[in-house]
Amino acid sequence: MVSFVVYFKKANGKLSPKVFKLSEKKLKSQEILKISKRHPIREISTRKYYNGMQRLAIQVNGKEIAEKEFELLGI
């Protein structure tokens, strides 16, 4: 199972995770899986976005294997 997690900044400044599923595949040993995904961040009625540092992580089988911070401006 491959997912990505966006840790969105909340009003109190803490980060809150939101998990998005990408793919569920069985791979053979040493097999490579290439996945690409675009995720729009725009105003929606169910979530309020706050400017500042956010974090993105990639999960494989429930374990985070990579992460990167990004700054959200002007939402």
Features:
75 residues; mainly beta; four-stranded antiparallel sheet; elongated
Task: Explain this structure.
With 75 residues, the chain is mainly beta. The chain has a domain at 1-26 and 50-75. Helices cover 0% and strands 48% of the residues. It has a four-stranded antiparallel sheet with strand order 2-1-3-4, with no helix packed on it. A hairpin with a 2-residue loop joins strand 3 and strand 4. The radius of gyration is 14 Å and the shape is elongated. The mean pLDDT is 92.
- The coarse overall form would be elongated
The sequence of SSEs as H and E is EEEE
Work out the strand percent. over 45%
- Which structural class do you get from the secondary structure elements? mainly beta
Question: Roughly how much helix do the residues carry, as a percent range?
Answer: under 10%
Largest sheet: 4 strands, antiparallel
Count of individual helical segments? 0
N-end to C-end Cα span: 31 Å
Tell me the number of strands.
4
Whole-number average pLDDT? 92
Radius of gyration from the alpha-carbon trace, in angstroms: 14 Å
Strand order of the largest sheet: 2-1-3-4
Poorly predicted spans: none
